[in-house]
Fold this sequence. Notes:
Elements: H1 3-13, H2 21-45, H3 50-75, H4 83-97, H5 101-114, E1 129-130, H6 131-136, H7 139-149, H8 151-165, H9 176-200, H10 202-226, H11 243-248, E2 253-255, H12 258-263, H13 270-275, H14 284-289, E3 299-301, H15 302-305, E4 313-315, E5 320-322, H16 327-343
Parallel strand pairs: 1-4, 2-3
Antiparallel strand pairs: 4-5
Helix pairs in contact: 2-3, 3-4, 3-10, 4-9, 8-10, 9-10
Amino acid sequence: MTQSKVTNLKKNVAPYEKTDTKSSIRQLFNTLVPLVLLWYGAYLSLSVSYWLTLPIALVTAGFVIRTFIIFHDCCHQSFFKSRLANEIIGTITGVLTLCPYQQWKYSHSVHHATSSNLDKRGTGDMWVLTVDEYAASPLWRRIAYRFYRNPIVMLGLGPVAIFLFQYRFNRKGAKRKERVNTYVTNFSIVALYALLCWAIGWQAFLMVQGPVFFVSGLLGIWLFYVQHQFEDSYFENEEEWSYVKAAVEGSSYYKLPKLLQWITGNIGFHHVHHLSPRVPNYYLEKAHNETPPLQKATTITLRKSLQSLRFRLWDEEGKTFVGFKDVKKVLHKNNAAAKTIKSNPSLQGK
């Protein structure tokens, strides 16, 4: 992608980098009001049957995801024009989604600035090793990586590890504002949960909040995973890395059914979001539809997305994700190619 094309692409997306206060307020109402009513409805259904509670909790979890998208936009200062309004709503929705606003805002901004950069992995993203790195790792690291990338661990233990533990502690070197915000968020979560336990009993609280938390956490991790971990994604070292390519080629267009697209706040248009984080979620689809180059991004359907569970390692030579069972084959192919180049100096640099 030439510099002129990059400039034109950014220029084409710029008109959508605007906040519509009415749309934002409308989204607050059509997200938080159903969230509260559904949660209360799940509680009331306990007196009928827990088999009725579970599907209501599942729908409630969907609105937790939608609440998180509002939180996410606030972190990018794209939900309201006022920075203070974004911080207030971001902190409140952060309590509801168990995410400290300032802490998450920092790590996520690093994620955007370094996404798909092999030399700057480790903050705000998932653990990704290349085939060569995995092959050169000691046994303990390979076991740890396999454990981490196991779908049961990632989607089963992940929500507990991240939302209940990781986000409760400040990172090393965090500034005072970030540390205080984490403390305020933690205190507010404890206060809210204590109030609910007092009002309806801790057993009823756990029976409702347990599945809501687990399903929303699982879906949140899944959305983040699938939108960067697809077969022909984009990863490069610092000297060849491009922010625009990382956005358009390293982030997918997750084409979901309209209802799921609405529930997930259009986050499926992830390539648009990574290209321009200042585009609020309610303009992402429009930006995609009215910007032809963005329509060339990798499109992943709901069915196709399930295939991403087998993508574990990045093959730098093949520029693709591969599974653990492909490691030996890829290494053999890479070694053969290296020997060929070594024996034919004229091929070097090609």
